[in-house]
Design a protein that fits this description.
The chain is of the alpha+beta class and 1867 residues long. It is 37% helix and 13% strand. The protein is built from 58 helices and 42 strands. The strands form 11 sheets. It has a 7-stranded antiparallel sheet. Strands 39-38-37-36-42-41-40 form a 7-stranded antiparallel sheet, covered by helices on one side. It has a 5-stranded antiparallel sheet with strand order 3-2-6-5-4. Strand 2 and strand 3 form a beta hairpin. The protein is elongated, with a radius of gyration of 49 Å. The termini are far apart. About 19% of the residues have low confidence.
Length: 1867
């Protein structure tokens, strides 16, 4: 029984002590005046009576009622029911008058008069003060409080003839039962009657209608998010204008949380004075009046629920995890059905007339029932994860969180994780974990209804029925007697508060009230205490738990077969059948990814342990340890699946004898797993073991005791669980004697203590590394028994000694200093011992003893390990696979022999299985080799299922861009040491870990040698020079004298002369152009040769003062003339040297030998094209105005428009000013002015030499052109890598220079230029494309004929940065955080590589347009050797079809890149001097641009994509000399340029990449593009927008079978083992081929159509004994035949298709193979995967049409093969119809073949003529063609069957018969 009300308080308004406008509450009276002993008076009531503050009011308000909740220091809640009414404030005069009035009767009469005149309202200006009646109770009976306070107010206001004191006394003495479902009627003595019903169980909350109201106010989603927020301990604030609503909302939210109890701050109504409580750091649920909403705005971490507005606001910084799916969606749908029952019927065609709707109270219970079911589903099986640590004197229970989450399959679920870690759940475990207690609805539900809930999941009606059943029970709990008599409580009359009150609320007589209270108390003491016997039972555990969402474990779904494999393997190991076990091991390791297989492994291993020990031999031990490590590898730190827990006893059981007295246990080999250093794992393990022992403690005596005590258990039932045992013991506890109780407590405590000692040993086993010699504790406690016993038995030493310090239990193992492993382990174990022993109630003496023991245990274990470590090092090493030696190139030598490494998977998915699925080729085990040319890895995959493959990854040493050390986390079979990651600019990545046998010295030596080879001190140290050379090319002095002057001596003289000449000049050169700095090493330019006549006429020259050229110089000139430049100049008609020496005035340009000694410009070629009118001596002065003296020279002329393309370095600042400012401006110095003047004359000479310069009348000033047209989709734009702006950063001044706006067509949407006519017909004769920064502020003179086009260029450092990012995007070092194409595309975009390509193409297309329209262009950017070279090369490639041939492209590269001095050595960082500058891929960027154009115009290029990849690879590989060194001058200085001419050409290793490619071309057509069919003189205008560009597959593809395919000699199959090892080698002997994206190429397995036909042709030629023709000649025959055939019959061969006009002036692949539905690519490759072109990817039909046409053209080889062909009808086999077929009679093969139709290449059947017996006339049968005469039928009889044929007419039938018989007679 409990008091209904503890205190009654009267609180009134009082003035504020500081005199502020607000008042304060003061307590007028409280009853009883003395505090109850069991319940002191709560402080601060006056604040809660008026939460908004005590204020006077100008008018009477109706009385209000609400219930505030106060929580005391013991977490007890006090319910303060407050009824507030307003009374007029008395002025002093009124107060005096009131004192004069006599007696109470008059007052009553006065009251009567007042009642008669209700209209007597308050006088004007009257104020009213609040007064509150407060009832304080520990019970929550809101309606009873409302009625009781209302009754007191009614007695007062209506003046009833009842004593207020007696009513209040009765109220304070009223007692009611707490629970049990009883019904009690009370009366307060004022003629009233109230019936109080107590709930059936007090553990279930009472909610009335509060939950239903909460859902009505906020809606389902909002309430669910509040529910999750409360459970995950967030701060929740309710806002409303109604206090009662706030209280109801808080009460409703708490009711939803059942069975968890909210244990944080809970204030449903918070007074205004206490608003700072909202800033508390702890979670809370608080209600605040909406008037204070503004004060809550700045709270950043509070979830605000506005009840009036129906919103819930979650701040950005707060993450509320939702319920796990599918519970979230299921709960949502059930709630919506409960709240809106008509929802299910809304779509019915004939809805039922009415729906019975639940009352609000019933709906409230239904909503609660939904949440009750939710908790039952969430926490199902929780009792199976409870650990009983102690039973007596009080139960100690722990919950195994990790196991619960693991078994429920909710490890990743944020919500449940937070709930289980929260305070509410901790309270739940301690309250509901108790095994013997009263049970309630939740216990029943979670134990017995889970199966039903799972079955009902997909049946909404059944779910609803269950919800209604639960709701009934909840309703019955609150209202046990539904048909209760109505309350009878007097209420005041309507609007009674407006009447003038008879008098203020009177002061009550304390004595009277106290007397009533004392009377009742005395009576209570006399009565016997009413104790309700609690119904305590064993709490049911329910079924074992299941996963919330049954997820199939995908790849490792554990079939019975997998488990069988695991069992077999283990039995083989223990039976000693090691070979069998070895075969199964890979499958076992794969199976162990699944949980069931791990469980199976631990069970099987347990079977082989006898008496806690299993001694194995070395091989068995290795197998067992590998399987254990594999199990533990996927084990997380919390071990939620219990794998580590199951293995813990096993790792201390399995052992092997290393030597007499030294035993190694398995735990020393499985320590490297995170689970062992996790305190939570050890605690869960400890509690689990303690529970087992405690259970055993009480089960042991069960045989002796009578069965009644332990509980009768039939034999067949399972033994009782620990919870059952504990429940039984708790039931018996009160019946035991005190001594027996003490004995049990002591036994339990000893059990816990012994387990703690055991665990201290276990932990030291798994935490102390095998080699702990470096960090040893002092040896003072070393004499505690021999090492072996210490390792194998539990060590218990004396407890004497000092007490070790107790350590902080919060921190983990990681804080230990590395220098002291033992100390760290001791600290870790001590923390563990402190925590578990304190929680388990171990006595302090025992705890001190443990602290003394731990260091001794650790120390003894260390000593044991020393012997084990010493002996284990003497074991023979594990057999490892033999190393595979790589193939080497001629001249390539091994520098470092194979170091054993593991090649690890990087971020590319293919090698490791990846998204495509398939074998994991990586990680692979093998060796790394370092040669003079390459770094090579060869090895085999560690996954033995892929074991037949050989994995090769290699790259040239010269391509290495980054090398970094990495630490390797992955465990292969052994522990690995340090790793190394090598990244190459050929898009290769070697991520490897050195094997343990490779010492750190060897690894360091590898790094040093690699560095030495990567950066030789001089270019002569590179592979191209050093490899296989009989002598090192050097100075001419070492060469034996020849009779005539050799080129070697020539080059020496040339350099000498150049140096002399340079000495006489006043040319300021940059520091880094000195020869010593420039000998960087780039493959040698291949020398372009052609004959141009050299006339020896005299020529005035500042550089050659002698009257005639010396003989040596003539020879030099003749050599220069043979260079590529001159051959090209001659082709372009820019003049020969002879014509220029004789000064033929008719030609506008001439070849000038002014730089033949490389004296004017060191980086230019010897012969240059300059305007005819410019003297040689003026050129030197012009050159001073340009950077690096690279003055403008002509490099190409348009055949059609005769416009020329010039190139130069950028302008020097002063020269620019001198050139472009007004003529009369004063110049700073005379030489400078001269140069500027010369420069201006020179440009005028260029303009004069351009044919259209005379058209000056309408010269375009490019003025009106707005930059809008040049923005992101226009012609130009910035080529600086300016973020993602797409080039809109060109200023208006730039844009305004291109063309008139009115003439401009809009650009094409995909970045193509507008129509060619977009420029005005009036143009400048010369456009100078220069760097915006140089040309800033320059105003061209209006009379001059050139225009400036300033553009922004990106710098080399931006190209470098972009390339680094591109490398990381295409070849990532580690897998992406979020796998999938998105992250790759994002990193690709971040690199900005494609936007740089876009800008280069954009500018090149612009220059092409200008040249095509007849204006000349000078490209004058940076130093003239990087971007300038890229742009002029691209312009020539786009404008001139010659450069798109194999010969022309070579010429272009030799002319523009090699002769004009692109700094290959410097940009490739080929020598030690260039190491700091790093690799800059300028040439690679140019090749990428060519690749983009090639993709868009596949029929315009004679060379294939593979040709470009080959160049990309070898321009950095340093295998050839072509791309070494920075200029022709440097090549001459090294004697490279002319040494391979004529008779002196040494028979040596191929030094030139071009020569090498020529040789390869004779063997294979891989460099040839089979789609090549150019249109004459077509200018290409590619689309340049980024969306039109493709990532080059050179960056992404790799072949792991043979390494990069660009060293052709090596691509002949995988590496082989050394000769002597071959017979017994473990290398695969199989001939099987595996086709796999990154491993092998598809053409090898499935060659394309043309390859197949040509191979067939070759075979037939060989059979016929004809000499095989070169494929190129054959191809030319085919093309010629096609052209001839295309004319008469008009059949659509590729030749005629090419002429078809495409809608755009470009042609794409689709046009070429018009017959097929999609465009097709045909690649011709005779040698498998090196073709480089793409394979046949067309629709089959399209390919067949085109290839069959080709097939029919091979007349020379095929004429005898098709002796006669035509259509015949053939009768099918028995019951088959007649069908028309194309028949071919083949005399050569002596067979009759037939095809589906004429162009079919696949033979459908063959009749061997050798088997034919006769050919005779036949007769028509059923189904034969009707229109054919009878004589058209004939039969061919063979030894097997008779074939029935029918020709189209009689003559052709006769012809066929004759032909076949002719063949037969010939044979």
């Amino acid at each position: 029984m409990a008091r209904l009300a503890d205190y009654f308080v009267l609180v009134a308004f009082g003035p504020h002590p500081r005199g502020s406008g607000e008042g304060q509450g003061r307590i007028l009276q409280r009853f009883p005046e003395k505090d109850w002993e069991d319940n002191p008076f709560p402080q601060g009531i006056e604040l809660f009576c008026q939460p908004s503050g005590w204020q006077l009011c100008p008018e009477r308000s109706p009385p209000t009622f609400f219930v505030a909740v106060l929580t005391d220091i013991n977490s007890e809640r006090h319910y303060c029911a407050c009824l507030t009414f307003w009374e007029p404030v008395e002025t002093p005069q009124e107060a005096a008058r009131a004192e004069d009035s006599v007696g109470r009767e008059e007052a009553l009469e006065e009251g009567g008069r007042a009642q008669l005149s209700p209209t007597a309202l308050a006088p004007a200006g009257q104020l009213f003060a609040p007064k509150t009646l407060v009832l304080v109770s520990r019970l929550d009976h809101v309606e009873v409080f409302r009625n009781s306070l209302g009754l007191i107010y009614t007695v007062h206001i209506e003046g009833l003839n009842v004593s207020l004191e007696s009513v209040i006394g009765n109220l304070l003495t009223c007692t009611i039962p707490l629970a049990g479902g009883s019904q009690r009627t009370i009366s307060l003595g004022a003629g009233d009657r109230q019936v109080i019903q107590t709930p059936l169980t007090d553990s279930l909350p009472v909610s009335c209608c509060s939950v239903a109201l909460l859902f009505r106010q906020l809606g389902i989603t909002n309430v669910l998010s509040l529910f999750c927020a409360a459970l995950t301990e967030h701060k929740i604030l309710f806002l409303s204008r109604s206090y009662q609503r706030l209280a109801d909302a808080c009460r409703g939210l708490l009711a939803l949380l059942f069975p968890l109890r909210y244990s944080f701050t809970y204030v449903p109504i918070l007074p205004a004075q206490l608003l700072e409580v909202l800033s508390t750091p702890t979670p809370f649920i608080i209600g605040v009046h909406a008037a204070f909403q503004a004060e809550t705005q700045e709270l950043l971490d509070v979830i605000v629920a506005d009840l009036d507005g129906g919103t819930v606001t979650v701040p950005e910084c707060v993450h509320v995890p939702p319920l796990p799916e599918p519970l979230q969606s299921q709960t949502h749908s059930v709630l919506s059905t409960v709240l809106d029952p008509e929802l299910e019927l809304a779509d019915l065609a004939f809805p039922p007339p009415t729906m019975p709707t639940s009352s609000l109270k019933m709906q409230d219970k239904e909503l609660r029932a939904v949440f009750l079911r939710l908790f039952a589903q969430l926490l199902q099986g929780y009792r199976w994860c409870l650990h009983i640590v102690r039973i007596h004197p009080e139960p100690v229970i722990r919950f195994h969180k990790a196991a619960f989450l693991g078994q429920r399959g909710l490890l990743e679920d944020d919500f449940l994780m937070k709930v289980l870690e929260g305070m509410a759940f901790a309270g739940f475990v301690s309250e509901r974990g108790v095994p013997y207690r009263p049970t309630d609805l939740f216990d029943e539900l979670v134990a017995h209804e889970v199966a039903r809930m799972r079955a009902d999941e997909n049946h909404p009606q059944r779910v609803l029925r269950h919800v209604k059943e639960l709701a009934e029970q909840l309703y019955k709990n609150e209202n046990p007697y539904p048909a209760v008599a109505m309350h009878k409580v007097q209420r005041p009359a309507e609007a009674s508060h407006l009447r003038r009150a008879p008098r203020p609320f009177p002061r009550l007589d304390e004595g009277t009230v106290q007397w009533i209270v004392d009377q009742a108390t005395a009576k209570m003491q006399g009565a016997p205490p009413a104790v309700r016997a609690e119904q305590r039972t064993t709490v049911p555990s329910g079924p074992p738990m299941t996963a919330i969402l049954e997820r199939s474990s995908g790849l490792h779904a554990n079939s019975a077969r997998r488990l069988e494999v695991v069992r077999n393997c283990i039995s083989y190991v223990f039976e000693g059948k090691m070979l069998e076990a070895k075969k199964l091991l890979p499958a076992v390791l794969r199976a162990l990814k699944g949980r069931a297989a791990r469980r199976c492994l631990t069970q099987e291993l347990h079977l082989h342990v006898q008496q806690n020990r299993a001694v194995l031999d070395h091989q068995q031990f290795d197998f067992v340890v590998r399987m254990m490590n594999c199990c533990l590898q996927d084990c997380t730190s919390t071990d939620e699946h219990g794998t580590a827990a199951a293995l813990l006893p096993l790792v201390t059981a399995f052992c092997r004898k290393l030597s007499p007295g030294v035993t190694q246990f398995a735990y020393s080999c499985v320590q490297e797993h995170v689970v062992w250093s996790t305190p939570q794992f050890w605690e869960a393990m400890f509690y689990g073991d303690v529970q087992t022992h405690i259970r055993a403690l009480y089960l042991e005596p069960s045989e002796d005791q009578p069965p009644s005590q332990v509980g009768e258990a039939p034999v067949h039932e399972e033994p009782p669980s620990a919870l059952d045992v504990a429940s039984e013991q708790r039931r018996l506890w009160p019946t035991l004697s005190r001594v027996k109780q003490q004995e049990l407590v002591q036994k339990e405590e000893s059990t816990v203590f012994s387990q703690a000692v055991h665990y201290a040993s276990r932990m030291s086993y798994l935490l102390l590394p095998l080699d702990s010699s470096k960090s040893r504790l002092l040896r003072e406690r070393a004499g505690l028994g021999d090492p072996e016993s210490a390792a194998n038995s539990l060590v218990t030493s004396s407890m004497a000694g000092s007490v070790a310090d107790s350590y902080d239990t919060e921190s983990g193992f990681e804080d230990a200093e590395t220098s002291d492993v033992a100390g760290a382990v001791v600290r870790f174990i001590n923390r563990f011992v402190d925590k578990v022993c304190t929680e388990s109630g171990v006595t302090s003496d025992h705890l001190k003893g443990l602290h003394v023991m731990v260091p001794d245990i650790v120390q003894m274990h260390i000593e044991t390990l020393e012997a084990v470590h010493r002996e284990s090092r003497r074991l023979p090493p594990i057999q490892k696979p033999k190393l595979l030696r790589p193939r080497l190139l001629p001249g390539e030598e091994c520098v470092l022999d194979g170091l054993r490494v593991y090649l690890l998977p990087d971020g590319r998915e293919e090698g490791a299985g990846g998204t495509v699925g398939g074998p994991a080729l990586l990680p692979a085990e093998g060796a790394i080799f370092l040669t003079t040319y390459r770094v090579i890895f060869t090895g085999m995959p560690t996954d033995p299922l892929v074991g037949e493959q050989v994995v090769v990854r290699a790259f040239p040493v010269a391509a290495l861009t980054k090398e970094k050390r990495i630490s390797v986390q992955t465990h292969m079979d052994q522990f690995l040491q340090d790793g190394l990651q090598l990244r190459a600019c050929t898009f290769q990545l070697l991520k490897m870990a050195f094997d343990e046998e490779v010492g750190s010295e060897s690894a360091e030596l590898f790094r040093k040698q690699l560095h030495r080879l990567r950066y030789p001190p001089d270019v002569r140290g590179t592979f191209a020079f050093a490899s296989g050379a009989a002598h090192t090319p050097g100075r001419a002095g070492r060469v034996p004298k020849d009779k005539g002057p050799s080129l070697r001596t020539l080059s020496r003289n040339l350099v000498k002369n150049a140096k002399k000449t340079l000495g006489r000049q006043h040319v300021a050169r940059r520091k880094d152009s000195s020869p010593s700095r420039e000998l960087r090493g780039q493959p040698p330019a291949e020398d372009q040769e052609d004959e141009i006549s050299v006339s020896e006429e005299r020529e005035p020259s500042t550089l050659t003062p002698s009257a005639a050229l010396k003989p040596a110089e003539r020879l030099t000139l003749s050599s220069l003339v043979e260079r590529a430049c001159c051959r090209d100049y001659q082709r372009l008609g820019l003049g020969t040297l002879g014509s220029s020496l004789s000064r033929a005035k008719s030609e506008p340009f001439r070849v000038s030998p002014v730089n033949r000694m490389y004296a004017i410009c060191r980086s230019y070629p010897g012969l240059l094209i300059v305007p005819q009118s410019v003297q040689d001596n003026a050129l030197q002065r012009v050159s001073r105005c340009y950077r690096q003296n690279r003055f403008p020279v002509v490099c190409w002329r348009s055949e059609r428009s005769k416009a020329v393309l010039l190139r130069s370095g950028g302008l020097h600042g002063k020269g620019v000013v001198g050139l472009f400012k007004a003529q009369n401006a004063p110049s700073p110095g005379q030489p400078q002015a001269d140069s500027s003047l010369e420069q201006e004359k020179y440009l005028q000479a260029v303009v004069g030499a351009t044919p259209r310069h005379a058209d000056t009348s309408g010269r375009n000033t490019l003025s009106g052109f707005s930059s809008a047209h040049l923005g992101s989709h226009g012609k130009w734009g910035s080529i600086r890598a300016s973020g993602r702006s797409g080039g809109s950063s060109v200023g208006v001044d730039v844009g305004s220079r291109l063309a008139g706006r009115d003439m401009l067509g809009p650009p094409q949407p995909n970045g193509a230029p507008p129509d060619p006519g977009f420029l005005r017909p009036q143009r400048a004769a010369l456009y100078i494309v220069g760097d915006k920064a140089q040309l800033k502020g320059v105003r061209p003179d209006p009379l001059q004929q050139w225009e400036l086009v300033p553009i922004e260029v990106f710098e080399v450092r931006q190209v470098k940065a972009s390339f680094k990012k591109l490398l990381k995007a295409c070849v990532p070092g580690c897998p992406a955080a979020e796998p999938g194409p998105a992250s790759y595309l994002r990193s690709l975009e971040d690199s900005e590589w494609l936007s740089q390509i876009h800008k280069l193409l954009q500018v090149s297309v612009l220059v092409v347009e200008l040249l095509d329209s007849g204006s000349s262009v000078l490209v004058s950017l940076e130093d003239g050797w990087d971007i300038t070279t890229q742009v002029v090369s691209l312009v020539q490639l786009l404008s001139d079809p010659f450069y798109r041939t194999l010969e022309g492209f070579r010429l272009l590269v030799e002319k523009e890149w090699l002769s004009f001095g692109h700094r290959f050595s410097h940009r490739g960082a080929h020598t030690l001097a260039g190491q700091s500058s790093g690799f800059a891929p300028i040439f690679l960027q140019f090749l990428d641009c060519v690749h983009q154009v090639h993709l868009q115009f596949p029929m315009e290029f004679e060379f294939s994509q593979f040709y470009l990849k080959f160049l990309s690879y070898h321009h950095v590989s340093r295998r050839f000399r072509t791309f070494l060194l920075d200029s022709d001058y440097e090549r001459i200085e090294l004697g490279l340029l002319y040494e391979e001419k004529g008779d002196r050409k040494a028979q040596q290793v191929c030094r030139s990449v071009w020569e090498h490619m020529d040789r390869l071309s004779k063997k294979t057509p891989m460099f040839y593009n089979y789609l090549y069919a150019p249109e004459d003189a077509e200018v290409l205008r590619p689309y340049s927008n980024v969306s039109n560009l493709k990532v080059w597959d050179f960056y992404t593809e790799e072949t792991l079978a043979e390494g990069p395919p660009y060293d052709w000699e090596l691509a002949r199959g995988p590496p082989e083992p050394p000769e002597e090892e071959r017979p017994d080698s473990s290398a695969p002997q199989s001939r099987r081929r595996v086709v796999w994206p990154c491993y092998d190429s598809r053409p090898r397995a499935q060659p394309d159509a043309i390859s197949r036909l040509l191979e067939e042709l070759q075979r037939l030629e060989t059979e016929l004994g004809r000499p095989p023709e070169r494929w190129k000649d054959t191809w030319d025959h085919v093309k010629a035949a096609q052209r001839l055939e295309a004319r008469p019959d008009g059949r659509g061969t590729p030749g005629s298709l090419l002429a078809s006009s495409a809608p755009h002036p470009r042609r794409s692949l689709g046009v070429y193979l018009r017959e097929g539905p999609v465009g097709s690519t045909l690649s011709l490759s005779l040698d498998s995967d090196q073709s480089g072109g793409s394979t046949a990817s067309s629709s089959r039909q399209a390919a067949r049409r085109s290839t069959s046409t080709l097939y029919s053209q091979f007349q020379t080889a095929e004429s005898e093969n098709r002796s006669y062909e035509g259509t015949l009808y053939k009768k099918g086999a028995f019951m088959k119809p007649w069908k028309a077929r194309w028949f071919v009679l083949d005399k050569t093969k002596h067979q009759l073949r037939y095809y589906d139709h004429r162009v079919d290449t696949e033979c459908k059947g063959v009749i061997d003529l050798a088997e034919v017996e006769s050919v005779a006339p036949g007769a028509p049968t059923i189904g034969a063609p009707k229109t054919v005469g009878e004589k058209a039928f004939f039969d061919v009889k063979t030894t097997r069957r008779v074939y029935n044929f029918c020709a189209q007419d009689v003559p052709s039938a006769q012809q066929w018969v004759d032909r076949i018989q002719g063949c037969l007679s010939d044979a």
